[in-house]
Each structure stands twice: as structure tokens, then as C-alpha cells.
Design brief:
single chain; 296 residues; alpha/beta; six-stranded parallel β-sheet; three-stranded mixed β-sheet; 9 strands
């Protein structure tokens, strides 16, 4: 079979739009849908066909890729697509959702004869735009010939975690990875806030750890966003990071683990959003260290 496919991308936010562009650049026929059509319209210049409904987007597709806000949004959109879903259609579900939601979505796929892949991605705006995401995937081996060209177009690496997408092994690994990302991001904000409070030049801290085991490129990158006031457009927005943090805390609770750092990160992100930073980069959790008076 040809590796040029018709791919439907449902959700064209930061990640979905970048993935759609890379699919089009790889030569695939791309059909896109977004609840706010205006956010999808720019993709027409990249060769994507912008549709009015999820059903229109998935009609005739070989692969459907969902990149929406959360599990509830994915379920709602896929229900809207039901009239055009055909048995055997491959579904790559790349939204970060909870473990329970993966099972529910897989059950929906089974009910409608879809070949389901639990396929969250690791990476933010820049790697998404460059086609350098890491795809974490679980799903049946017999359908991988169809879905692999999609993963190859949006990512530089695919990590397979199993053959049962319903078990959520890919999502479980993604939640573990995101717990680390959120912890480092929260720490980045706190060290900068503490340095400010103690009248310490942040560069002195980075000089202190330079080249040693405490140094980290990601930590430096997040601090640089704050120091250079480059929080917009976000690589990963505060509001979405808070959602992921709460999914991580929930997963821990359901499996008997208390995740104090993740819970604190979720609360910091919530406060930052309440202060007006919801749609800035998640590094803006830094502002949760200050009340409104101390920030002025």
C-alpha cells in the first residue's frame, strides 16, 4: 500500500496545527477541523482542507488524529464524527488524557469498529513545528503499517509501549514524563522568585551549577522565557499544564501514591491562571510566587 494517506486532524491548537502542517509537508492529504474554525483557516495555506464539522473531516480518511484539550473534549468530538466513521478506520488518539479516559475512548473505538492507538506525544510548540516530537504509542501490530507514516511525519521517534491501546500504557508513560516536566518548570519559577526575593542575580546561580550534575538545559530554557519576557506565544500553556498536573495527581491517588510536588504544581498553575496568565507559557507559574501587590 502507498504511504501517502488521507489524515483527519481534529483539533488545531498549538500542537494540532503543527502536526497538520508536517503531515501536509510529508505529502499526505490533510483534512482539519477545529471548534473555532478561524484557528484552522491558516492551515489552508499549507495545503490542508478546512472542514466545518468533525464528520466532514473524517469522511474518507485513512487515519484520524485527535489533539484536543482533554478526554471529555475528545469523546464529544468523536461522537459528532460518528455519521462518517467507517469500520477499520485507524484512530491515533494523541490528546493527553487520564488513564480511565483512555479505556473509555478505546471502548468507543471498539463499538464503532475503529483501530485504536493510544498515542500521546512528548514535546511542545518548537519540536511540534519541526516535526521532532516523540510519539509514545500503544496499539495492535497489524495496523501499524497505516499509522506509522503519520507518526513519522509528526515526530522523530516513536516509542512503542504495547499492543493494547485500551490498557493505556502509552498514556501512563506520558503522565510519568509530564510529572517530571512540570516539576522542573515549577522549580524554575521558584528559584527565580527566590533569587529575586534575596537579591541574587540569577546568572550567579547558573554560573554556580554550570557544567555539573545540577545543570539542565530545560531549566535554563524556562528561566530564559521569564527573564526575556517571552511567555507568548506559549510552548505549552498554563491552563493545559494545570490540566495535566491534575491528571497526574489523580492517577497517583487512584494507585495509592501521594504526589505532593505535582499537587503543588497544579495549585501554582491555577493561581497563575487566576492572575491572568492562563494562555501564557507554563513558565508563568513563576507569578504564583507573588501576590498582586508584591508584583507591582
Amino acid at each position: 500500500m502507498t504511504d501517502k494517506l488521507t489524515v483527519s486532524v481534529l483539533g488545531t491548537g498549538i500542537m494540532g496545527a503543527a502536526m497538520a502542517r508536517n503531515l501536509a509537508r510529508a505529502g499526505h492529504t490533510v483534512r482539519v477541523w477545529n471548534r473555532t474554525r478561524a484557528k484552522a483557516e491558516p492551515l489552508a495555506a499549507d495545503g490542508a482542507h478546512v472542514t466545518d464539522t468533525p464528520a466532514e473531516a473524517v469522511r474518507g480518511a485513512d487515519v484520524v488524529l485527535t489533539m484536543l484539550y482533554d478526554g471529555k473534549a475528545v469523546a464529544e468530538v468523536m461522537r459528532e464524527a460518528v455519521p462518517a466513521l467507517r469500520s477499520g478506520l485507524v484512530w491515533a488518539q494523541s490528546t493527553t488524557v487520564g488513564i480511565e479516559a483512555v479505556g473509555d475512548l478505546a471502548a468507543f473505538a471498539h463499538e464503532h469498529g475503529l483501530v485504536f492507538y493510544d498515542a500521546p506525544v512528548l514535546g511542545t510548540r518548537q519540536p511540534a513545528e519541526a516535526g521532532q516530537l516523540t510519539v509514545i504509542a500503544a496499539g495492535p501490530a497489524e495496523g501499524r503499517g497505516t499509522v506509522t507514516p503519520v507518526f513519522d511525519a509528526v515526530g522523530s521517534r516513536t516509542v512503542w509501549t504495547g499492543e493494547d491501546g485500551a490498557a493505556g500504557s502509552a498514556t501512563r508513560l506520558k503522565l510519568v514524563a509530564n510529572s517530571w516536566v512540570l516539576a522542573v518548570t515549577a522549580a524554575a519559577g521558584e528559584i527565580l522568585a527566590l533569587a529575586r526575593a534575596l537579591d541574587v542575580d540569577p546568572e550567579k546561580f547558573f554560573d554556580l551549577i554550570a557544567g555539573g550534575p545540577l545543570d539542565m538545559g530545560y531549566l535554563r530554557a524556562k528561566v530564559d522565557l521569564l527573564l526575556n519576557d517571552e511567555l507568548s506565544p506559549p510552548s505549552f500553556a498554563v491552563v493545559t499544564a494545570e490540566k495535566d498536573a491534575r491528571l497526574i495527581v489523580e492517577a497517583g491517588e487512584k494507585h495509592g501514591v501521594r504526589l505532593d510536588v505535582a499537587a503543588a504544581a497544579a495549585e501554582r498553575l491555577r493561581r497563575a491562571a487566576a492572575q491572568g496568565h492562563a494562555h501564557e507559557d507554563m513558565a508563568a507559574a513563576y507569578f504564583a510566587s507573588f501576590d498582586e501587590e508584591s508584583r507591582s
